Amino acid sequence: MAGRSFPPGFWTNAGAYLLNGLKNMTVIIRGQRTGLASLLGSDRQTGGFQIGLKMSGKVGVDFACFGLGKGRKLFEDAYMTFYNQPETPCGGVGLSAAGGDGDQARFTCRLPNLPDGIESLVFTAAIDGKGSMRQIQQGYLRFLVSGLEIARFAFTGGDFQDEKALMLGEIYRKDGVWRFSAIGQGFNGGMAALVEYFGAAVAEGEPLAKGKLSLENKMAASSPALVCLAKKAAISLEKHKLAETVARVGLVLDASGSMRHQYRDGKVQSVINRLLPLAVHFDDDGELDVWAFSDHVLALPSATLKNHADYVGTVHQGWQKWGMMGKNNEPPAIEKVIAHYRDTRLPVLVIFVSDGGVNQNAAIKKLLVAAAPLPIFWQFVGIGGRNYGVLEKFDTMEGRVIDNCGFFALDDLDVISEQELYDRLLKEFPNWICEAQQKRIIRTG
After folding, report:
1. Hey, what domains does the chain have and what are their CATH numbers?
2. Predicted pLDDT at 18
């Protein structure tokens, strides 16, 4: 051992496995690059091998493999391998939901089957829901051949901070030879951020450009029922020059007693379904933040592609268990939203749904005037109600550094097409973004 040094973190990652008797296993450390043939043997490399993945802790994680071509761009949509698209068309990469020996996911790799245009395979993990990568207790990416573990790259939550997604490792071609790199690099966004990162063509010598898989493709992969809505949302996004905008999206739902029939008849669920495509497009996490209010305010779990189908009937035990159905009390809801988004520099689109009965006009006005320097645009939507009070007077509201509010009312959500709804929701948002950029209230891109 004299005269030999080990990279930082070597014993932290390797020691546990050595003590467990895995002395014939190769320990890979973060940042290490190695030839795949020397790691697995040339016969094992061409004959097929598995990548086992696991992350333990108080967070749910989804794993994916991105097949990249030139410029580190996703080769084709079909070469993103994940739970809803478990095999590439060529059979070069396949995913099983869980492997043996404790793996949460296991990818089978047959490199000779890959198209010539595939230059690398990047294995990733993204948190499903709330939480961050610092909550991981232990994790690993390991190589297996015929069920035998050959090599392992281990990590812990102490290696990360608030990241919600990780690039764990990459198998790549260099000078015609397959190699492996242990990356361990984090992203603040979730799976959507990874898709965006790998979804754009890059000119040689230029930094990676921001790009996205189409909204329709994202919906088709995990929520086919929303594909039609995604198509219509995409049209409005292009029309309003918002196709490349990254933002956060929030929804505030009136849950006062007068809204009972709107929940019972599925109107509120329809709002969730219609707004989710916008959240998936805009939001770096692909989530729709949700609050409900009446006498008090309830912060609900984010609406996602996984839980949206019967959101109002199941989330937090369903709307009848939310403890609402009292009287309107908008100011505390506005305050909660402000506190949630105050420190972001991304633009925020908050859609505030109410059936009227607004009576705290002075308090609402005071809060919205004070919120004008913040990166939040408030789009109020009246559905099937009356007496919207100050909400109908935003265009003449004085004392703001920027016009940060919009309002429109609908007698019945079902009588307006999705296309018209998206156009109304997005009508004032682009102008606010331009002015907010000029005043350095937000950053975009």
Report:
1. 10-213 (2.60.60.30), 217-438 (3.40.50.410)
2. 39
